[in-house]
Amino acid sequence: MIDLKKLTIKDARVHLDNKDFSAKELAQAYLLNIEKTNGDINAYLEVYDDVIKQAEEADKRIANGESSPLLGIPLAIKDNILIKGKKATSGSKILVGFTAPYDATVITKLKNAGVVFLGRANMDEFAMGGSTENSAFGITRNPLDTSRVPGGSSGGSVAAVAMFGALASLGSDTGGSVREPASFCGVVGLKPTYGGVSRYGLMSLGSSFDVIGPITKTATDCEILFNVIKGVDPMDSTTISENTYENSNKTPKVLGVPYHILDKGGMTFEAREIFDKSIEKLKSLGFEIKDIKLPNIEYSLAVYYIIMPAEASSNLARFDGVKYGLHIDGNNLLDDYLETRGAGFGREVRRRILIGTYVLSAGYHDAYYNKALKLRAKISKDFTDAFLEVDAILTPTTTGPAFKIGEKANDPLSLYLEDIFTVPANIVGIPAISIPSGTVSLEGKNLPLGLQIMAPHNREDVLFSVSKKFLNEN
Ligand code: GLN
């Protein structure tokens, strides 16, 4: 019997190479578990019908003596990342009927590595949200407490891992969508450096923030998956080579905590307690903790919720009923656009398009969009200055544990506030990871919380090093 609960990518590799089980048996075990759990959780929008065939291919490669870290490893992929010949909807009705005409670069890399794709994971429509309640195809539930949200927007990808329905998965992170659900479901989630992973074949939300990131059970697995998907891509001119920034290879030692923002974040008492305990643990592991100031960080949410909708409103203009998916006939071309977009986009997407076009409009461009860009530069400078003093920066990932389904559904602003600790890394483009840091007991359930670690551009190595120490991984 394969114990899916304990299995990691690292262990599965050893078992596959030892022929303890085949890639086909591994895939079958996951398919069985998905069949049992997905009805309640709705992590997957679709489980592919060629999973066994993919696994048999991987087994052939293993039989030929090939061994690479991800050969035969079953993964879930967020519904906004293109896999040639498969459906992709970004959680939206407007893309019903759309089939991906090409592979995203990350998918090409994973195919070459011999990954088995289990299916596409549910998400907030066009990755707008922090709860996976905004999908056009139903909510996803938190596997640890089904009355609660899994977080979002990569809620399906994270729930798939947390319900033992995938060994790991890919999500996308524009303002926290990999880290926040990772925190709510007790797994590891990485937002890589902006440009560290190609966005080619990822449906755009906020192009200057978006990045694809791995979701795994351990920091070691996260590093394994990241190492396969990262790298320069001629199809995405914003990708950067690993050598763009100097890697000092110095072992991280000094960790900064911007205590002034914690007090403003509206954290629950228990969440603060767990964070303080995490700091104590890091101290006992030999790290030096420094209280640091990031003077402009309190403007992060305002900056993010101006620039991101501005970019989203432009990116989503392509969904006009002509090029992709849904088409509704009106009386003329303009009518076609209006009918299709009105019927195809959900409320949150329409809200952000309205905000985005407003802040970009001639009369308000200077007052909002340009001002936000200036502040973005100031926030970046704050981080650059802080990293002269510290090797990494710590905050909680979220202000509290997973909230109840429906609790924030009618109050978009309260949902936006959830992103207070995660958006700065996207504004600045630096890498950030969320790792499980403890649990709080609520209504008889143990609900996890995450510790966020941020490092300078291209220093994912710092994140993995601190995370592995914290999580006791060798
Ligand atoms: N919760 C944030 C938002 O709604 C982040 C989304 C994301 O990272 N895709 O925009």
Q: Any descriptors?
A:
474 residues; 16 helices; globular; single chain; binds glutamine; eleven-stranded mixed beta sheet; alpha/beta
Compose a concise summary of this entry.
This protein is an alpha/beta fold and about 475 residues long. It has helices at about 10-20, 25-40, 50-65, 105-115, 155-160, 180-185, 220-230, 260-265, 270-285, 300-315, 335-345, 345-360, 365-385, 410-415, 425-430, 460-470; strands spanning about 45, 75-80, 115-120, 170-175, 190, 210-215, 255, 290, 390-395, 430-440, 445-455. The protein is about 40% helix and about 15% strand.
Q: If you had to describe this structure to a student in words, what would you say it looks like?
A:
The protein is an alpha/beta fold. It has helices spanning 9-18, 23-41, 51-63, 105-113, 155-162, 179-185, 219-229, 259-264, 269-284, 300-315, 333-344, 347-360, 365-386, 412-417, 423-428, 460-470, and strands spanning 44-47, 74-78, 116-121, 168-173, 188-191, 211-216, 254-257, 288-291, 392-396, 432-442, 445-454. β10 (432-442) and β11 (445-454) form a beta hairpin. The longest helix is centred in the C-terminal third of the chain and has 22 residues, at 365-386. The mean pLDDT is 96. Bound molecules: glutamine (GLN). Glutamine (GLN) is lined by residues 127-130, 153, 173-177, 205, 308, 419. Glutamine is lined by residues 127-130, 153, 173-177, 205, 308, 419.
